[in-house]
Amino acid sequence: MDTRPLAVITGGSSGIGLALARRLASRHWRLALVARGEERLHAAAASLPVETSAHICDVGDRDAVQALAADLLELGGGRIEMLVNNAGIPGRSGALDVDPAVARAVMDVNYHGMVQLTRLLWPALVAARGRVINVCSVAGTVALAQSAPYSASKHAALAWSRALAAAAPAEGVRVLTVNPGPVPTAAFPQADLLAHPLARRVVISDEACASAIVRGLERRRSEIFVPEWWRFAGVLQAVAPTAFGRAAARARRA
Ligand SMILES: NC(=O)c1ccc[n+]([C@@H]2O[C@H](COP(=O)([O-])OP(=O)(O)OC[C@H]3O[C@@H](n4cnc5c(N)ncnc54)[C@H](OP(=O)(O)O)[C@@H]3O)[C@@H](O)[C@H]2O)c1
Prior knowledge:
Layout: E1 6-10, H1 15-26, E2 30-35, H2 38-47, E3 52-56, H3 62-76, E4 82-85, H4 100-127, E5 131-135, H5 148-167, E6 174-180, H6 191-195, H7 206-218, E7 223-226, H8 231-239, H9 241-250
Parallel strand pairs: 1-2, 1-4, 2-3, 4-5, 5-6, 6-7
Helix pairs in contact: 1-7, 3-4, 4-5, 8-9
The structure holds NADP nicotinamide-adenine-dinucleotide phosphate (NAP).
């Protein structure tokens, strides 16, 4: 029986999730990666130097998540040391022009998937006195005019993650909430920011983001912003909502 700790990473086939998988692999974790696209998922699993299982699942699909959880519980033998809720999709539209079906789909993936999978794996996380890492976003603390469904889903995810972090230690589980700023990845290319000579300075790589997550884990932090100064964006929106709203009306789509 493999006794190395098991980390489950949703959205582990690309971007921040795959960069984190590489770091955990070098620290001798065994990995279970979850995503929808088969080819990219298998390529990601094969690229890692440790035993890695690949699980095809849409985390926005309740039945699929139920089946995924059963597979993961069996794989871990009732113990899962780490769950990284990282799978996410953009939602680029305004508050009123959003297609309600799209708003629901974004919420299903970015919020409900996180809640459902964590609940189903909870007994195994408790048994292992494990860690949950929820990849939320700076968009969970501020709202831009042109990414209403995404911001709404990340506000929900952030609030839920903070509530979980408050409750989990009583059961021996610790939670790390991660709020990245812009990171150029497959689904979030950040082309507008990268095209701008000044704005591109706020963009960081998926590798830098994964390093910050590992540092957050090692320092037993409960919530990080990546980079940390993004924390002030939420403060600004809270203390100066009118001025922030004017700026947000002009800002790019996320
Ligand atoms: N990049 C940024 O600027 C940024 C900033 C703040 C927060 N974040 C958050 O970081 C997380 C990771 O995103 P990323 O930037 O690394 O993007 P990415 O490179 O596009 O990776 C997204 C990952 O999630 C998977 N995924 C998407 N929808 C899924 C679903 N319904 N079920 C299962 N897996 C799904 C993707 O694989 P498949 O498509 O094959 O399913 C892929 O593995 C997301 O939660 C995102 O909201 C990103």
